Amino acid sequence: MRTRALVTVLVATLVAAGCGGPDGPPPLALTKVDLPGAPVTLTPSGGALLIGLHRDGQPVVPALVRRDASGAVTEIPTTTATPYGKLARWTQIATDGTRLFAVGGERGGAHGNVRWSVWDGALAGLTEKRQAFSTFGGYGAGDLVGVVITPAGPVVLGGWDNPNGGFDVATWLPSGDDWIRQPSAGTALEASREALPFPIAATPLGDGIMIVGWQFADGREQPVAWRSKSGNTGWTKTPLPAPPTAHGAAMSVSCSAAECVAAGRLDSTLALWRLTGDTWSQLPDVPTFPVSDTDVLPAPAVTPDGTVVQFIGTPDGLKALRRTGTTWTVHSTTAKGKPTAATTVGTTIYTVVDDALWSVDITKLP
Predict the structure, then answer these.
(1) How far apart are CA 340 and CA 312, in angstroms?
(2) Measured distance CA(187)–CA(169) in Å, rounded
(3) Radius of gyration of the chain (CA)
(4) Which SUPFAM superfamilies does this chain map to (predicted)?
(5) Rounded Cα–Cα distance for residues 52 and 117 (Å)
(6) What is the spatial distance between Cα 112 and Cα 102, in angstroms, rounded to a whole number?
């Protein structure tokens, strides 16, 4: 009987330790940010944060607010031009500090395809620009990934039918109020019989653009990054490091002037990669969490001191995976739900979890 009692105490102790007992890292106390709608997208703008909102039942559903360093929230007027523009949910909002460009979409029509809308303006207001149906729709259309602003101008990114099979990574450039699709043939964005590309996320990098996603090649899914040298020119494609038989994809990315960090999956498990200079490497010893091909994985939040924070939803609540130096720490948090977006403004990390926005000051992390 005494032996059985000792075993019971030992098992209870081990379980408590595995669940974040007194020796484990303390949970992160996230602060909920009150907003006049459900947050969808996050875009840093200097020391402020632009937050794309969705508001059911409002006269204009896609909304945009600016939260400044003091925490004050100001609404940026949005003006629609089409019925689907009034229903759109933001895909991506981009700014260079002065100009604003945005992409949104909503499913509709007989086939339930996404009806895309494009917007531009400034902090004084964002206006939808009506496009011909064939610009982003029609027989050869794919999905849009979003919009990125480079020193050479804005670029809308997505996919479009390749006449020889599959979809190319496609780009559109503005001409007045119209967006004109650019040829992908002969570039690293072109599909081939050997490799079919699938872009998922994009962000500016230096004078160019970084896109991450995956390609189907050699009978498996392979994580891939596409990078332009300047604007929409000088595209290269780089398969991301992975075991030779692994299936996977890069699903989100964030970049600073010096580096990028991408998050994704390898064999249904969380994986992260870092770009330093021109070389991608897989971050080692990432804590094991499942990630499926239907999950939305927010971009890694990278602070000025190089700390990487990756949010991931679990049945036990939101987890924050923190990498400082070469050490990973898994923090539980006070939030529940699935994260869909994350970014950093100064030392503050923001994340969208379900229909709420949360923040945490990285300098106050234990």
Answers:
(1) 9
(2) 10
(3) 22
(4) Fucose-specific lectin
(5) 14
(6) 22
Whether 102 has a pLDDT exceeding 50, the answer reads: yes
DSSP letters of 31-91?
Answer: EEEP-SSEEEEEEEETTEEEEEEE-TTSSS-EEEEEE-TTS-EEEEPEE--SHHHHH-EEE
Distance between CA atoms of residues 202 and 221, nearest Å: 19
Q: Hey, what are 106's tokens?
A: 């909503």
Q: Could you read off the pLDDT of 252-292 as tens digits, one per residue?
A: 999 988 789 999 999 999 999 999 999 999 999 999 999 99
> Other C-beta atoms within 10 Å of 32: how many?
12
Are 197 and 191 in contact by the 8 Å Cβ rule? The answer is yes
Q: Closest by alpha carbon to 363, among 123, 85, 28, 15?
A: 28
CA dist., res. 129 & res. 199, Å (int):
24
pLDDT at residue number 23: 58
Taking the CA of residue 128 as centre, how many other CA atoms within 13 Å lie in the half-sphere pointing to its CB? 26
Q: Where are the domains of the chain?
A: 30-130
Residues in the chain: 366
Burial call 151-187: b when 16+ CB within 10 Å, e when fewer: eeebbbbbbbbbeeebbbbbbbbbeeeebebbebeeb
Distance CA 142, CA 144 (A): 7
pLDDT tens-digit map of 161-192: 999 889 999 999 999 999 999 999 999 999 99
How far, in Å, CA of 243 to CA of 220, rounded?
12
Query: Does residue 126 have a pLDDT over 50?
Result: yes
List the one residue out of 291, 285, 284, 84 whose CA is nearest residue 200: 291
Q: Is the pLDDT of residue 79 over 80?
A: yes
- Give CA torsion, residues 143, 125, 57, 111, to 10 deg: -20
Place of tokens 């770009």: 275
